[in-house]
Amino acid sequence: MENNKIAVGLDIGTTKIVAMIGRKNEYGKIEVLGIGKAKSLGVKRGVVNNITQTIQSIQQAVDEAESVSGQKISEVVVGIAGQHIRSLHHSDYITRANADEVIEETDIENLVNQVHKLVMLPGEEIIHVLPQEFKVDSQPDIKEPIGMYGGRLEANFHVVVGQVSSIRNIGRCVKSAGLNLADITLEPLASSSAVLSQEEKEAGVALIDIGGGTTDLAIFKDGIIRHTAVIPFGGNVITEDIKEGCSIIEKQAELLKIKFGSAWPGENKETEIVSIPGLRGREPKEITLKNLSKIIHARVQEIIEHVYLEIKNYGHETQKGKLIAGIVLTGGGSQLKHLRQLVEYITGMDTRIGYPNEHLAGDSEDVLSSPSYATAVGLLMEGLEKESVIEEVEPVVVQEQEVVVDQESVEESAEQIQDQQKQQTIKRGKSFLEKFTERFKEFLDNAE
Prior knowledge:
The chain is an alpha+beta fold. The protein contains 13 helices and 18 strands. It has a five-stranded mixed β-sheet with strand order 3-2-1-6-11. Strands 14-13-12-17-18 form a five-stranded mixed β-sheet, sandwiched between helices. A four-stranded antiparallel β-sheet has the order 7-10-8-9. Mean pLDDT is 84; it is low at 395-405 and 421-432.
């Protein structure tokens, strides 16, 4: 039955680790069965720096999700991000042996495999190879070349690169926590699945996911991902600045930021003061909200300017690269008061906050539609998508086993299987990470 298909998204962040377990309901919406959350102790700026602590945090989050949902978690879809992720643009081509035959999925795979052979810096590996436009015999701007005739197949690629050791460390933590890797995906891509509509991706949109340790950027245009970047600043540096600027402890700085913080200093009056209890019998500290918002404003402005520089590098000011849908902010950091107004002021682009509630079932808890769960929801969607694609071909295989007597039926069902498998290949060919995941699983098995 459709409802029995369950997937788990595991978001390993800098501030929190979230395990989200869910399934699709009869309307195709996601029904979250359970969610587990643990403080992330062994991750800094999206990179694991303490294996033992990360394993414990993963186990804690998974145990909580299991007890809430009553389900046993065996495999998870994991997101990767971190300051080691970078992206580049590359063009490549293949010359086909026979131009009189139509272009097939295998030709595109050959082209993609050729890009995978690019020489990277020591310790780096290609994570994603995302084709953008194709060119067949100098005919440009082709989105889907399958079925066309041509001798030379050319394409522009968006290539995402990351540190092998950082990715393997995440895999090791997941495996050591007693879980299998169902899939690995880039976190900005997962967040975009959760909060962006297809119309926005077509029109042109920049997704800014402000996490605890990093700020992820993903730019879409014409329904295709055009640019990704990871900026090594997030909500934690704002908290650090408040801690230093007001001489208070981190816990108090975080609370101040959440309760009274604002990215726009103009709205606070000098007379608005908040009193913070002193440490161990010391006098309480008085902090003006104007000063607090000045500290926050300075750091947030720096983060937004970094992101805006990346958007400019993509070329949003050109007619072809115009982002009509503007900017969508998500992630825990996007909940900061007046951040949307500041982003609009700095960039001059329309901005909204992205909530992942569009894909969730109507009776979901309000807490789940918070922007801080956007990545977890996106990873869960990815897992459920993968499940349904695998399931698609199964009923036909059963049919073929049953009908053995009637020769015509056998041939018919064999054709059906081929068609279904061909469709499946085309659908699944888009996720080039699958091959990477398989190689990665092999590596982990051999490392033991």
